[in-house]
Amino acid sequence: MRNFAIAIDGPAGSGKSTIAKKLSEILDIDYIDTGAMYRAFALKILKCNININDISSLNKVLNSTIIDFKDNHIFLDGQIVDEEIRKNEISAGASDVAKIFQVREKLVEIQRNISKDRSIIMDGRDIGSVVLPEAEFKFYITASIEERGKRRYKELIQKGYNVNLNEIIKEIEERDRADSTRKIAPLIKCKDAVEVDTTNKTIDEVISEMLKIIDRRANNVII
């Protein structure tokens, strides 16, 4: 069986990262969280106190930054940053960073190189449209804004953060608007992507639905 790629796109809070991780475990293939890469670089910029409009300084930081994945952990310059990159201020920063051409060009290059010699599953905003347009399987994961807000709220509360549900929903609405209207690689649903609405569905129900789709098409695309 030859290597294959699964591209999963969708808005913030749709559950795509959780779904991608579980699918990768079931299919025994590598999972690459591309959104985490942008979050990691946003964290680096914050730590270095760099103005994102200062392209010269931004390029220097970008060229000296090492982002890697090992055992489902993301490393920034050799340090695990799984928790740090999930803070609200980093989420907002990641959306701003993703608009910068130089940053996207560099990270997309890394993402494509990762996919060359192994089967992978990637999730993000533009995997099927930009990063892996030739992916054998493409999914667009979505859910209502209210559902996504509740999930994010629950996640942050469980981690001990003091947050407000209405504010989180508002942030998600703003994030959707920013991601969908940005000039560089906006969030879109590819014509050949299968849409999966996760509202009021358990993770297991969504996984089962996607595995059936993959199984039906597998003989045609990866044998």
Automatic annotation (TrEMBL):
Annotated keywords: ATP-binding, Cytoplasm, Kinase, Nucleotide-binding, Transferase
Annotated signal peptide: none
Enzymatic reactions: dCMP + ATP = dCDP + ADP; CMP + ATP = CDP + ADP
A Pfam family recorded for this sequence: Cytidylate_kin
Binding of ATP, residues: 10-18
Recorded GO CC terms: cytosol
Gene Ontology MF terms in the entry: ATP binding; CMP kinase activity; dCMP kinase activity
EC annotation from Swiss-Prot or TrEMBL: 2.7.4.25
Keyword Cell division set for record: no
Gene Ontology process terms (BP): nucleobase-containing small molecule interconversion; pyrimidine nucleotide metabolic process
Segments traversing the membrane: none
CDD domains given in the database record: CMPK, NK
Keyword ATP-binding (UniProt): yes
Compartments, record wording: Cytoplasm
PANTHER family for the chain: CYTIDYLATE KINASE, CYTIDYLATE KINASE/PANTOATE-BETA-ALANINE LIGASE
NCBIfam families registered for this protein in UniProt: cmk
Matches recorded under HAMAP family: Cytidyl_kinase_type1 (MF_00238)
Similarity annotation: Belongs to the cytidylate kinase family. Type 1 subfamily.
Designated name of the protein: Cytidylate kinase
Organism: Proteiniborus ethanoligenes
